[in-house]
Amino acid sequence: MQPVPAINRLIAALPAPEQQRFLARCEPVTLSFGEVLATPDAPLLYVYFPTESFISLTTTLNGSTLLGVMLVGDEGMLGISLVLGLNLSCLHASVLAPGQALRMETAQFCRELELSAAWRRLLQRYLYVMMGQLAQTAACNRFHLLEARLARWLLMAQDRAHSDCFHVTHEFLARILGVRRVGITKAASRLQKRKLIRYHRGDIRILDRNGLEASACSCFGSDNSLYSRIMQAS
């Protein structure tokens, strides 16, 4: 299990003086499971930087069906459209794992962007990473088998939860991965029979991280490689 970071990794990447100034203007909050933080085409009131919690970003099909496009944890933020000068969300954002986060009013955040060239450079890199990961997810949903996609999603959730245990139902996974519930049940059962996970009434425990990585599609490694390569570049 990975330790919970003291602060969000984006904020941690700022030079020390700017990091301290930014943190002084942030408000610590506790996010609740299912809490809606953004809706499509609605103004953003706050930007969020998860530290313990993580957020599910989804898009709607035919006005109702939700399809998962990304998870945001301590590696990222909610509100990246502000970097483009747009105070709107194109996705639905809700809390999937409750816990701590830092938030800032959008007007204050925009002022911080104007003051800090380091923030602008860093978040432009993060925006590039998000674009790459979204493209990877689109290809993954089209070409990879469900069991491998499920393993990838569980690894992503584990990394953001910083815990081997988290709660997510078959129904939710089916909606997020865009498949029938019976497909999730079969895929999860296969992973459980191989002793990679334990699953009971929505409670998931990762038993064998290495085995789960071997079962996941290549997209999991590609996502992590892209983040490391771009965000750590000078």
Protein architecture, described:
This protein folds into two domains: 9-141, Jelly Rolls, CATH 2.60.120.10; 145-216, Orthogonal Bundle (Arc Repressor Mutant, subunit A). Strand 4 (54-61) and strand 5 form a beta hairpin. Helix 4 runs antiparallel to helix 9 (219-231). The chain is of the alpha+beta class and 234 residues long. The chain has helices at 9-12, 16-24, 106-115, 117-143, 146-161, 170-177, 181-193, 209-215, 219-231; strands at 27-31, 36-38, 46-50, 54-61, 65-72, 92-97, 99-105, 165-167, 197-200, 203-206. The strands form three sheets. The chain has a four-stranded antiparallel beta sheet. It contains nine helices and ten strands. The model is unreliable at 1-5 (pLDDT under 50).
Keywords:
46% helix, Jelly Rolls, HTH_CRP, disordered N terminus, alpha+beta, 234 residues, 2 domains, Arc Repressor Mutant, subunit A, three-stranded antiparallel sheet
